[in-house]
TrEMBL record:
This protein's name: Uncharacterized protein
InterPro entries per the UniProt record, alphabetical: Colipase
Cellular-component GO terms for this entry: extracellular region
Taxonomic superkingdom: Eukaryota
Listed GO MF terms: enzyme activator activity
A single BP term in Gene Ontology: lipid catabolic process
Organism of this sequence: Myotis lucifugus
Protein backbone atom coordinates (compact mmCIF):
# COMPACT_ATOMS: atom_id res chain seq x y z
CA UNK A 1 0.00 0.00 0.00
CA UNK A 2 1.30 3.43 -0.93
CA UNK A 3 0.69 6.63 0.95
CA UNK A 4 -1.94 8.66 -0.87
CA UNK A 5 -0.58 12.11 0.02
CA UNK A 6 3.09 11.84 -0.77
CA UNK A 7 4.26 14.83 -2.79
CA UNK A 8 5.70 17.88 -1.03
CA UNK A 9 5.19 21.51 -1.98
CA UNK A 10 7.23 22.46 -5.04
CA UNK A 11 7.17 18.96 -6.49
CA UNK A 12 5.59 18.35 -9.89
CA UNK A 13 2.12 16.81 -9.68
CA UNK A 14 -0.71 15.61 -11.88
CA UNK A 15 -3.59 15.60 -9.36
CA UNK A 16 -4.31 17.46 -6.12
CA UNK A 17 -5.04 14.24 -4.25
CA UNK A 18 -1.37 13.24 -4.63
CA UNK A 19 -0.14 16.37 -2.76
CA UNK A 20 0.26 16.53 1.00
CA UNK A 21 -1.33 19.99 0.82
CA UNK A 22 -4.18 18.63 -1.37
CA UNK A 23 -3.53 21.38 -3.94
CA UNK A 24 -1.86 20.78 -7.30
CA UNK A 25 -1.70 24.24 -8.89
CA UNK A 26 -1.48 24.60 -12.67
CA UNK A 27 0.81 27.35 -13.94
CA UNK A 28 -1.07 29.06 -16.79
CA UNK A 29 2.16 30.29 -18.41
CA UNK A 30 3.79 26.92 -19.03
CA UNK A 31 1.09 24.35 -18.15
CA UNK A 32 3.31 22.74 -15.50
CA UNK A 33 1.74 21.83 -12.17
CA UNK A 34 3.25 21.80 -8.68
CA UNK A 35 2.03 21.03 -5.18
CA UNK A 36 1.53 24.22 -3.18
CA UNK A 37 -0.06 25.47 0.04
CA UNK A 38 -3.75 26.26 0.21
CA UNK A 39 -4.69 29.94 0.19
CA UNK A 40 -4.08 32.32 3.10
CA UNK A 41 -6.34 35.22 4.05
CA UNK A 42 -7.01 37.54 1.06
CA UNK A 43 -5.40 35.13 -1.46
CA UNK A 44 -7.28 34.29 -4.65
CA UNK A 45 -9.08 30.96 -4.38
CA UNK A 46 -11.30 28.53 -6.22
CA UNK A 47 -13.16 25.49 -5.00
CA UNK A 48 -13.28 23.28 -8.08
CA UNK A 49 -10.63 21.32 -9.92
CA UNK A 50 -10.34 20.63 -13.62
CA UNK A 51 -8.96 17.12 -14.17
CA UNK A 52 -7.61 17.15 -10.60
CA UNK A 53 -5.76 20.48 -10.95
CA UNK A 54 -6.53 23.92 -9.54
CA UNK A 55 -6.07 27.27 -11.26
CA UNK A 56 -6.13 28.78 -7.73
CA UNK A 57 -6.00 26.67 -4.58
CA UNK A 58 -8.85 26.45 -2.09
CA UNK A 59 -8.40 28.15 1.28
CA UNK A 60 -6.62 26.90 4.38
CA UNK A 61 -8.77 25.53 7.22
CA UNK A 62 -10.62 28.30 9.07
CA UNK A 63 -10.99 30.38 5.90
CA UNK A 64 -13.76 30.44 3.30
CA UNK A 65 -13.51 31.17 -0.41
CA UNK A 66 -15.84 34.15 -0.85
CA UNK A 67 -16.92 34.86 -4.43
CA UNK A 68 -18.08 38.25 -5.74
CA UNK A 69 -21.85 38.63 -5.68
CA UNK A 70 -23.77 38.96 -8.93
CA UNK A 71 -20.66 38.51 -11.11
CA UNK A 72 -21.73 37.73 -14.67
CA UNK A 73 -19.00 36.57 -17.00
CA UNK A 74 -18.02 33.64 -19.16
CA UNK A 75 -14.58 33.57 -17.55
CA UNK A 76 -13.71 31.60 -14.41
CA UNK A 77 -14.71 33.62 -11.36
CA UNK A 78 -12.24 33.49 -8.48
CA UNK A 79 -12.93 34.32 -4.87
CA UNK A 80 -10.75 35.52 -2.01
CA UNK A 81 -9.96 33.61 1.18
CA UNK A 82 -11.72 35.30 4.10
CA UNK A 83 -12.16 34.56 7.77
CA UNK A 84 -15.88 34.35 8.43
CA UNK A 85 -16.85 35.64 11.85
CA UNK A 86 -20.03 34.14 13.24
CA UNK A 87 -22.04 36.74 15.16
CA UNK A 88 -23.48 35.51 18.44
Amino acid sequence: RGVLFQQNNGEACIQSIKCKSRCCLRDPDNCESHCTDKGSEDDLCHTQTFLGLYNECPCQPGLTCVFPKNAKTFKIIYGHCKKIVVKK
